[in-house]
Amino acid sequence: MKVADIMTKEVDTCTPQTSLQEAAAKMKEINVGSIPIVDNDKLIGIITDRDIVVRGIADNISLDTAVSEILSESMVTGSQDMSVEDAAELMADHQIRRLPIVDNDKVVGIVSLGDIAVKDKSYGNADIALDEVSEPAEPEK
Fold first, then answer.
1. CA–CA distance, 113 with 99 (Å, rounded to integer)
2. Which pLDDT tens digits describe the chain residue by residue (141 residues)?
3. Which of 46, 94, 107, 141 is most deeply buried (CB count within 10 A of its CB)?
4. pTM for this prediction
5. Domain count, the chain
6. Is residue 118 one of the residues assigned to a domain?
7. How many angstroms separate the CA atoms of 30 and 83, rounded?
8. Which range marks the domain in which residue 45 is found?
9. CA distances, 25 to each of 34, 36, 48, 130 (Å)
10. What CATH code is carried by the domain that includes residue 102?
């Protein structure tokens, strides 16, 4: 099965100038935990709900701050023609729960662990990724 068969194709995005508050409100509205950040249709980063909390609120950054200040720039991406198994392994290797799917740097979809678990009936792929992504973190004290 190919990623194109299970990915979410209509992906909401934000621009680098979008405020943290606007990004958080959009996440709430569409019930997602991350939003790709695009500039002139080119994927330049991704912001997660965790980024907003850990890099924003915890550091007392104003909610009016642009997402470009705290977004994750080093991203792992996939392609529409890769297999679901390859996508799951890529997600496991990089311990990520969401994989932006790009074509010529443009976001054409996104795949989550949930998509793999629900839409890929082999289920083993989700188990592979979930085992690796869900390794417990050791708190720094």
1. 9
2. 899 999 999 999 999 999 999 999 999 999 999 999 999 999 999 999 999 999 999 999 999 999 999 988 788 999 999 999 999 999 989 988 899 999 998 999 999 988 888 876 554 554 555 555 445 555 565
3. 46
4. 0.82
5. 1
6. yes
7. 27
8. 3-133
9. 11, 14, 12, 27
10. 3.10.580.10
CA distance 3 to 68: 28
Residue 141: inside a domain: no
For residue 64, being part of any structural domain is answered with: yes
Structure tokens at 43: 């994927």
State whether the Cα torsion 103-107-113-117 is positive or negative. negative
CA-closest candidate to residue 65, choices 12, 13, 24, 11? 24
